[in-house]
Amino acid sequence: MRGVFVTGTGTEVGKTVVAAAIARTLAATGERVAVFKPAVTGLDEGGEADHELLRRAAGSAQGDEEIAPYRYGPPASPHLAATMAGEEIDPERLLEAACAAAGDADALVCEGVGGLLVPLAGRVTRGMREELAPQPPERYLVRDLAIDLGLPLVIAAPPTLGTINHTLLTIEAARAAELSVIAVVLTPWPERPSRVEESNRETIAELGEVRVETLPPLELADPRSWPALPLLPPC
Ligand SMILES: Nc1ncnc2c1ncn2[C@@H]1O[C@H](COP(=O)(O)OP(=O)(O)OP(=O)(O)O)[C@@H](O)[C@H]1O
Ligand SMILES: [Mg+2]
């Protein structure tokens, strides 16, 4: 499967924007791009959901179910949102759905959920208290999905103070599982970066031994106005 798995240093760090920019870049060169998001939560909060922005950026005709097989209203981590809906996320179903989404597309752009160590599946039998318990090994993590899909990672991260540690931890967690990291993308990258932001970019590149790209603030309503973010070699 040719494509990319966009993870991040946490939640609300720009994964969707980075994944959308990658998808748009591929689509703009005439590639057929499929998008995938294993689980979407927080639909109750309104606004454009992740799978909707991804579809728009990719110019894809995929249905909601094809992009995001598990969709939940509450703004909770996916395994908890599933539990609250009285079900459990099935890793096999995720893999089948991702492969079906990739179908005969030229590339698959997959956005993760939260960060790499977020559990997707695994029973929460004691409600919220289970959140405090050590993670049982049978949990299926976002990282496991990236491994099973065989996709290289792009890591979205903010450029601001605190990002060095979060980004280097994410790179370590990726490489510990032999996942390859194409690049870190700092987003939104200001027109006039501060000394801290410039230093963060250099420090992450040096200590993480990784390519670091930046993405300026995008007009999300108009993908045609976005600068290219060419992170995948041409097919
Ligand atoms: N380059 C950018 N241009 C415009 N907005 C941006 C940019 N980068 C980040 N943002 C904004 O930052 C916020 C978080 O971005 P985004 O939704 O992509 O994060 P996320 O990691 O996908 O979040 P979640 O964990 O909920 O999936 C959004 O409001 C988004 O519009
Ligand atoms: Mg997102």
Give your account of this protein's structure.
There is one protein chain. With 235 residues, this protein is of the alpha/beta class. The chain is 35% helix and 16% strand. The chain contains 8 helices and 10 strands. It has helices at 15-28, 50-58, 64-67, 78-84, 91-102, 142-149, 163-176, 195-208, and strands spanning 3-8, 33-36, 39-40, 70-71, 107-111, 119-121, 140-141, 153-157, 181-186, 212-214. A 6-stranded parallel sheet has the order 2-5-1-8-9-10, with helices on both faces. A two-stranded parallel sheet has the order 3-4. Strands 6-7 form a two-stranded antiparallel ribbon. Strand 9 (181-186), helix 8 (195-208) and strand 10 form a beta-alpha-beta unit. Helix 1 (15-28) runs parallel beside helix 2. The model is unreliable at 124-128 (pLDDT under 50). Magnesium ion binds at residues 15-16, 50, 111.
DSSP helix count? 8
- Estimate percent helicity: 25-40%
Instruction: Sum up the overall morphology in one term.
Output: globular
Largest sheet: 6 strands, parallel
Can you tag this structure with a few keywords?
235 residues, alpha/beta, 6-stranded parallel β-sheet, two-stranded parallel ribbon, globular, binds adenosine-5'-triphosphate, binds magnesium ion
Quick summary:
By secondary structure, the protein is α/β, with parallel strands linked by helices. The chain is built from eight helices and ten strands. Helix 1 runs parallel beside helix 2 and helix 7 runs parallel beside helix 8 (195-208).
